[in-house]
Structure formats: C-alpha cells, structure tokens
Specification:
The protein is mainly alpha-helical and 741 residues long. It has 32 helices and 9 strands. The strands form 3 sheets. It has a 4-stranded mixed β-sheet. A 3-stranded mixed β-sheet has the order 7-8-9. The chain has a two-stranded antiparallel ribbon with strand order 1-2. Helix 11 packs antiparallel against helix 13.
C-alpha cells in the first residue's frame, strides 16, 4: 500500500459531515472528502484545526455534475491547497511548461503524434491555423480514433499508407467541443469536469463560459493540464496536511501507526519467498566480503603483505565467478569487473613487494596499462557509435531488402552468409540484433525461429574472427600488435568460413520445408531513402578505412576510428541541418550505446594488466607449457573454455601470459587464439555476447541450445581448427605441422 494514499484512507478515520451543493456554487470537489470555496484574494495561510463534535458520522457522497461540497469544518487542508488548489497553481507545479505542443493544422498526424509521445513535458497538441486561430486539441485518444478510421476505411496497403500523411486538422477534437477551466477554479472542479466528460485534459484559459467552453478569440489560453497534474498537487498537499493533523489528534497517529504496522506485515510476507531469501543471502555475503576487504586494506594487515599473491588470485577468482554467474547473482558484470580491478591494483600497489604505498614504478605501470586499455575502449566506443548511427537511419535495409526467398533452407543459408560477412565489419552483437529482428518478419513460427536465431549466433561469431574490426577479441589482439591486418584476413578467412559451413551443414538438417513461409504475409521491401543510403555507405567506408589508415600512417587504430566517427558526426549534422528533431544525430546514437559493456572491458583489461605486471600470468604460461604438449592444444582449450567463460578476459589473460618478443606479430599462437576464442563461444549459448542477446530476444533456453545447436557448433569449431592447421602446414611446406603436437 503506497504511503501517498494515506490521506485518502483517513476518510474512514476522520468524522465529517457532507451536504450537497447547489448549482450556484461551482467550487466543489467530486468524489472526495475535502473541498473549499476558493478566494483569489485570501492569503493561503494554514488555518487552525477545530476539534469535531462527537457523534458525527460519514455520510455517503453523492455525485452531481458540480460534485460535492463538504462542511469546511471537516477539511484537513487549508484553503487554496488540496482540492481547492486553483488551476493556475496546478499548471505551474506540473513543471511541464504550458503542457501542450503547438502544431500547425497542415502537420501530418504521425509528426504530431511523435512530438507528444516523445516529449515528457507536452502530452497533448493544440492545433492552430495560419492565422493562429485554435482549430482543436489532439491527444493519444484522437490518434486511436484516427487509427480505427484508417483500418475501417482502407481497402489496401496503399490506401492505409495515405492516411499516415493526412493533415492533423481532420482528426482533432474541435475547439468548440473543448472543455476549459478558469485559472482561479479549483482542482475539485477540474476532476468533476474530467469525470463527467470522460476526458483526461482540460484547457486553462480566461475567460471561459459558465458551461466551461472557450469564448472564441476573447479567451487567452494559458496551458493544458491533465488528471495526473491535478492529483499530483492534491496528494502532495494532503500529505503535508496530515502531518499537522496527526500532531493535533494523537488518536489519528495511533491508527496511522497501526496501518503502517499492517503494511510492514504485508511487506514481510511478500519478502518471505525463496527468491527474496536468495537475494538477502547474496546481499549479506557481498556486504561481509566488501567490509572485510575494506578493513583488511585499512589495517595494513601483515597477512596481506606476506600472502599478497594469494590475495590477488583470490580477488580475481571471486570477481570471475561473479562475472560468470551474473544472471544468478543479479549483479552487473561491469560493476564486478571495476571492483575487481580496483582491488587487484590496491593489493599490488600497497602489499605486493611494497611498504604500504604505491611506488613510482607502480604508478608508471598503472599509467602504461591505462593507456593500452584506453586504446581499446575508445576504439569500441567510436565503432559502436558509427554502427548505431547507421541503424538509426535504417541503413541495414540495403542488405535486408535483398532477401526474397520463401524456401526455409535457402533462407537459412542466405541469412547465415549475410551474417558472416556483416559481422566481419560490424560488431557481433549489433549484427545479431539486426538479423533476429529481420527473422521475426521472415519466419512466422516461433519454434522454427529459435533455430534460425542460433544459426545467426554461430555465423556472427565465425564472421567476426577474420577481420581486425570484427570480433572484439581479434580487435584486442590487433591493437596490441599480436595480429596485423593482411595476414589476419588472408589466413583466418578460410578456417572461419569452414567453421560456418560445417556448423550450418549440421544445423540445416533440422529445418523442415513446408508452405508456412509461402503463405505468410511477409512485408514487401521498402525503399531506403537517399539519406539512409548515404549514411550506410559512409559508415561502412569509415569502418573499412580503419586498417588502411593505420597501415598508411602508423598511428594507432583508435585514432582512425575516432576520425571516422568525426566524419559521420559532421555528415549527419549537415544532412539534418534544417531538422528540429535530434533523434537521428550522433548524440542520440551515443544515448543508445552499451556503456556498461565498455566499462566491463575497462575493468577486465585493467585486472589482467595488473596480473601481468605482477608476473602471475607468466607463471601460469610456464605451467601450461609444461603440462600441455603444444601451444595448439593450449589455444584449443582456451577456445573450449570460452564457451563457459567470457572470451574477453580469456584472451586478455593469454596476451599477458605469452610475450610478444617470444611470439611475434601474426605468430601461429595468436591466430589460433583469435580463431578459437571467437568460434568457441558458439558451443554454448552463454559463451558469447551474441548468444546472450539471443537468450534475451527470443527467450532461448540453455538446455534447448545445448541439445539442438552445441553439437553442430562443436563440429564447426574443430573443422575450423583443422582447416587452419592444414592451411598453415601447406603454406610452410611442413605437412607434419598440421598435427597439434
């Protein structure tokens, strides 16, 4: 039970006497227990409260067109407040400017609707003609009537479309039918008018007729208020009044405390569930861990000085577990990664071979690591923004409009190949979202669309491997000079393609041909505007120019990507120079970015960096090299692990384990890690960002994916590795090099 309803619940507590008003007194309240006759000249000071005579009982309130007038002795709010609040104050405290969008009678219905639905301050439009005369009011209710008319009158899609550009003047509530209220009239009058007329909006104007209509040009419109505006002011005033009332009548406070106790009991019963118990356990355990860590750091524990390596490993493992079980613990992995990063750096700086304060060497290492990580974060930020700008302009229609087949198996292969090549230049997550949105139009049956969606995940992960700007793990290796552009494309394309074909060849056998797609009312391809095409090709050009820019100038890739973003920003500003709408420009795209994802990369890479600086990753690399027979098997194991564990920290850890001086740029180890980490994430649905997106968009179950898709993804994974090893052996002329040992 919400505390804001408390004043209204007090109707059953406060003894009041009501009597019906006459038509001569319009200052009333409809369906309430308080009302006043407002005087604009009277000072709104809080009056003293008189004790009511005993024996008074609450009589039923009767509804009339004018509402109900209650005995002033029974009120709990002062005159000019609560239900006697004047309309002028309601309009002011609503904080929605004048409450309406001013539209021309020639504006289209959709344009006006966009203006009032996309604006939190103006939820209605007043429509004026060229002479600034009021034509009428347009709200969501009028749009519903418009849509109903369009559906009934349209015989085909063309006629229906013609309605969408119709002028708004044909569908407004005419000015002669609008209900208006004077600025001095009360909230009670406003509520009564809204209820009796079955409306949600009132014009505030002066003067108005006795039957609450505008007086033509003589009426000056001050604004528009809605029911929410009225009740917001009324409830706020009554909550404040209750505090004063409770101080004067202790018995009311006692009953109120009883009511609060009942509310606590209800809340306690609602919290007594296994789900709430799990949340409480997680909250308590997390609090204990954080407090314990904080106390240990502040106390300069001797144990931390003596066992700093164990402490760092423990912090990393706990953080990693929190990231893996993000959905179970209901913690955002970005927050966990940032906390893990901070904990590791503090432990390293203050306890790892340290006297308690960060040394100059540690600060230098921190600066170097932050510079390296910033390269990747700025690269991802700029690339994601460019893709969002293209998506805002529906640029991907250039590709999706070409899909016309009605054969399910042909569609399966077509979508797979399109996804594979798109993800090579766009990030996997965006491509997955775009293709699944398309599949919702192309594949009508939900159960079949799940398999198509799983295929998109496999194709997106395979396609992102073979270019430096595709999958984020390949990008990380490229930015840190483990990979270069041309060898990555030429030597990883074929293994990635074989991985795709191998997986899809297995999965396509589960697709059953029938007439469902032929009988489905698939949407016709709508043409893309010239602006959309310009933005699409400019965006693609900006992304493709990044490796060229880097190779020609020798400057880091993030600078090339930021340059591309600057070009796209300027382009969209120019083509929308005359537009008032800001929704198609770069700032709107920035609002849609997954900022938490970029902060996750920051936290993970900073954590891996400190483990590298401490030498712990080197020790792990030595252990793996001594335990496993070859680096090929190590890369394969890392790929399988990426099916369970996020591939970003896996690859970041590998980058720190093996020195670039020992394994140079484009070494077989780095190429295999890029291939395995990218394609291995398809084995399980939780192994990649694309898979997680599929789970959210299509509600794919973990076990369903494991049963239907994992075998095919695994076959493709090992087929891709075998292809790479064979290709590498052929290029080097050493056929024995194809063996992974």
């Amino acid at each position: 039970m919400n505390i804001v309803l408390t004043p209204i619940l007090l109707v059953g507590i406060i003894q009041i006497e009501a009597f019906t008003t006459s038509k001569s007194n319009p200052s009333v309240v409809h369906g309430s227990f308080t009302t006043y006759q407002h005087s604009a000249t009277r000072s709104p000071n809080w009056p003293s409260l008189r004790k009511l005579p005993p024996g008074r009982v609450l009589k039923p309130l009767k509804s009339t067109s004018d509402g109900i007038l209650l005995n002033p002795r029974s009120t709990i709010t002062p005159e000019g407040f609560g239900f006697s609040c004047p309309a002028a104050r309601i309009l002011s405290e609503a904080e929605r400017l004048n409450g309406f969008h001013k539209a021309s009678d020639k504006d289209g219905v959709l344009a006006v609707m966009d203006a009032i639905t996309g604006n939190t301050q103006q939820d209605a439009a007043l429509v004026f003609d060229d002479n600034d005369n009021l034509v009428g009011l347009f709200t969501e209710t009028d749009y519903i009537k418009f849509s109903t008319t369009r559906i009934k009158a349209s015989q085909n899609e063309e006629e229906s479309a013609s309605y969408l550009v119709a002028p708004v003047k044909d569908y407004v509530t005419p000015a002669s039918n609008l209900i208006a209220i004077g600025p001095e009239e009360t909230a009670g009058v406003a509520i009564a008018l809204m209820q009796d007329s079955n409306i949600r909006h009132l014009l505030v104007a002066a003067p108005v007729t006795p039957n609450h209509r505008l007086k033509g040009d003589a009426s000056e419109i001050m604004g528009v208020i809605n029911l929410q505006d009225v009740m917001k002011v009324v409830q706020k005033d009554e909550r404040l009044s209750f505090v004063s009332l409770a101080e004067k009548y202790p018995s009311i406070r006692d009953r109120f405390e009883s009511m609060r106790d009942e509310m606590r009991d209800t809340a306690n019963n609602l919290a007594n569930t296994p789900e709430k118990a799990k949340q409480d356990i997680v909250a308590v355990a997390s609090s204990v861990l954080l407090i314990g860590a904080f106390v240990a750091f502040l106390s300069q524990s001797a144990w931390l000085h003596d066992h700093s390596e164990i402490a760092m490993i423990a912090i990393f493992i706990m953080g990693y577990v929190g990231i893996i079980f993000e959905e179970v613990l209901e913690f955002n992995k970005a927050g966990i990664a940032l906390l893990m990063s901070t904990g590791l750096w503090v432990t390293y700086a203050d306890f790892f071979q340290s006297e308690g304060l960060a040394s100059e060497e540690v600060l230098r290492q921190l600066g170097e690591q932050l510079a390296e990580v910033s390269d990747i974060c700025f690269f991802l930020l700029a690339a994601s923004t460019i893709v969002e700008v293209v998506d805002l302009h529906q640029g991907f229609k250039v590709v999706t409009n070409q899909i016309k087949t009605t054969s399910k198996k042909q569609l399966f292969w077509t979508i797979g190949f399109i996804t594979f090549f798109l993800s090579a230049i766009l990030n996997n997550l965006t491509v997955t979202i775009v293709m699944i949105s398309l599949l919702r139009k192309l594949v009508p049956r939900d159960d079949e669309r799940l398999l198509f969606g799983a295929m998109v995940v496999v194709a997106a992960n395979a396609g992102g491997v073979w270019t430096p700007i595709g999958d984020v793990t390949t990008t990380m290796l490229w930015i840190n000079n483990q990979l270069s552009t041309v060898p990555t494309i030429t030597e990883l394309f074929l293994p990635s393609f074989v991985c795709l074909v191998g997986s899809l060849a297995f999965l396509v056998n589960q697709v059953e041909e029938d007439e469902s797609m032929e009988n489905a009312a698939l949407p016709e391809a709508s043409p893309l505007s010239a602006r959309g095409k310009l933005v699409f090709w400019s965006g693609i050009g900006s992304l493709l120019a990044v490796p060229v820019f880097s190779e020609l100038t020798g400057l880091p890739p993030y600078l090339a990507m930021l340059t591309g973003l600057g070009c796209m920003w300027t382009l969209t500003d120019v083509i929308h120079l005359a537009d008032e709408e800001e929704g198609l420009k770069v700032p709107a795209a920035l609002e849609r970015l997954d900022t938490s994802g970029i902060l996750f990369f920051l936290g993970i890479l900073m954590s891996i960096g400190v483990l590298d600086k401490s030498g712990l990753l080197k020790e792990l690399a030595v252990y793996l090299s001594e335990t496993l027979p070859s680096l090929d098997i190590i890369a394969t194991v890392i790929g399988i692990a990426s099916a369970l564990i996020d591939n970003v920290p896996l690859v970041a850890a590998t980058m720190g384990m093996y020195d670039l001086a020992d394994y140079g740029t484009d070494d077989r180890l780095w190429q295999l890690i890029a291939l395995c980490a990218g394609t291995g994430g398809s084995i399980l649905v939780i192994g990649s960002a694309s898979g997680v997106a599929l789970m959210g968009l299509e509600k794919v179950d973990f076990l369903w994916y494991a049963k239907k898709v994992s075998i095919g993804a695994t076959l493709g994974y090992f087929a891709g590795i075998a292809t790479y090893l064979l290709q590498s052996a052929i290029i080097s002329g050493d056929m024995m090099g194809a063996l992974p040992f």
